[in-house]
Amino acid sequence: GAESEIHGLTEEVKNKKEEYSLSAKEINIIEPLVKKGISPLSNLLVKKQGAIRLQSEISEINNQIVSKNNFIDLKGKEISTIRQDYLHSIQKKLQDSENDLSILNAELKIINLQRSENIVHSPVEGVIYNVNKNAMTIGGVISPTEMLFEIKPVDKHVRAEVKINPKYRDQIFVGEKTTISIESIVNSRRRPYPAIIENISPDIIESKDNTGLKEYYKVMVEFYVS
Q: How far apart are CA 194 and CA 221, in angstroms?
């Protein structure tokens, strides 16, 4: 009956309160670590989200207990008025908790966005070496033209973009076998590799640099390195 349901809900509230107490202790431990930069802010926000959610669940269960008690002990209009006031208070607490949760979710979304913007994605799978020394110091600045680090590719399958003088356009074709010479960063000796022309731009491309206007066809070649 209703009394057994109330007993079950009361036990559930007890368990939720114990869980909330543990969550509050975790938050108290993590907060100073976040201030010192030892623990990420996102971890603290997740813990606070969990605590707010527990508060909402406890309030909701208490609301159910009050409703069931009123169902048993309802004695006229006065009790009904008290019940309505209490329900209004519970609803307000739930609304406040939902607002707090919404704010925390927005902060967490911003943090995740900032984190994703700070991630450098490698164009190839490989091993990082020769890192720019300015990237290893707090407050270090790297200009757009500077190298962040070098990557030694793991995959032997490589695609490269090559600029071809327009006067040689009639001598190259898609699917044609060719040879490409690579000058390594760590090795100045040019090494030839057999390659296949994968794609040729349909039109001449123009670009301007310090020496003036340059015209070329953009050619994609595919080759394997060992």
A: 10
- Residue-wise pLDDT for 100-127, tens only, equals 888 888 888 888 887 777 777 766 677 7
For residue 157, report the phi and psi dihedrals to the nearest 5 degrees. -85, 120
Contact 34, 44 (CB under 8 A): yes
Question: Which residues, including other chains, have CB under 8 Å from residue 85's CB and lie 6 or more apart?
Answer: none
* Gap between the Cα atoms of 220 and 200, Å rounded: 6
Q: What are the boundaries of each domain within the chain?
A: 2-117, 156-224
Alpha-carbon span 217 to 115, nearest angstrom: 38
Residues 218, 188: contact at Cβ < 8 Å? no
Averaged over 45-74, what is the pLDDT? 81
Share of the chain above pLDDT 70, in %: 89
pLDDT for 216: 92
Cα 153 from Cα 169, distance rounded (Å): 30
